[in-house]
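User: Can you fold this complex?
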Amino acid sequence: MAVRRVTRPADRTEAIMRAALELAGEVGYARLSIEAVAARAGVGKHTVYRRWPSKGVLFLDSILTVNEPRLDYRDTGDIVADLREQMVAVVDLVGRPPWGPLYRAVLGEAQHSPEVAAALNERFVRAQAEKTTARLRAARDQGQLSPGFDLDLASELLVGPLYFRLLISEEPLTHNYIDRVLEALFAGMGPKA
Amino acid sequence: MAVRRVTRPADRTEAIMRAALELAGEVGYARLSIEAVAARAGVGKHTVYRRWPSKGVLFLDSILTVNEPRLDYRDTGDIVADLREQMVAVVDLVGRPPWGPLYRAVLGEAQHSPEVAAALNERFVRAQAEKTTARLRAARDQGQLSPGFDLDLASELLVGPLYFRLLISEEPLTHNYIDRVLEALFAGMGPKA
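Assistant: Here's the predicted assembly.
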């Protein structure tokens, strides 16, 4: 495709992120390079490096900038439905093809790159956890959660099983799996008094 | 340390696994090599490769062979106590120094090595999940679990939050965290009827 020439900083930022996603989709994460992204975006590679120190951070930023609004929670008054909707959006974005294998590669890189691990948490994981906790707090105030439930832990219980399938067992992240996780977490494992 | 000369196959296998753990502890996972393990064990590198196709598989096999009995469940009749004891043993083995960072490196490798991912599941994850499900089934038969609980999902709910801390948030895997996870999973998130 044609190389784009862009000059305004905001256009340049957008062109770089768009080029990163296009190239990642074409060649995969392992063969993605900052140099190729810069060439595709029509900027010098130092322009890219000034803002994104590594391709992992650039990829995360690009995919989230484009998609983040989809990952917000609605408040319809039904906590299970709202959690489900958001978890489906997350899984459809980063738990399945086309982006799932690339997100998985970034998470692999985070295991030996403190820079990528930090960006992952700052840019995505902590922000999502805060949104989850806020939505759950509203639900608790409306009597839709057990009053004594450990809210600080809830977001880890909700996403832990998803990451387990993505990174460890490689079993499919279906919508039905999300339903089962929600049902089990809400019901609890212990005998009912 | 002195190079060992071993000739019996069983002795040789043990010497290789011992050498793998020694060297991994000394140089870390990234700098571990099959060649160095072979030299330390006093065998040719083809002897190692015949049994272990990669250093990830060798490391997993070595650490589990030495420690697996510790990762079994007791049945004391108290399901929460037995789960806690086993989860503490797992976390103390592969969730903290000295072996935690190395296990994390192997999991990072599993994101791009189908061979390591397969060994991880065959050698460790599936076997542990089966033990967990068996112990939970006994507890359910004794009335210690909700009769309708989704037992096939339970092991993922239990370990998912641990992997989330190890691989994503990098928050500490304390024994107190295990207590909180167990309490929350047994109580459930939903309001009590």
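Chain B touches chain A through 50 residues (CB under 8 Å). The two ends of chain B are 65 Å apart (CA to CA).
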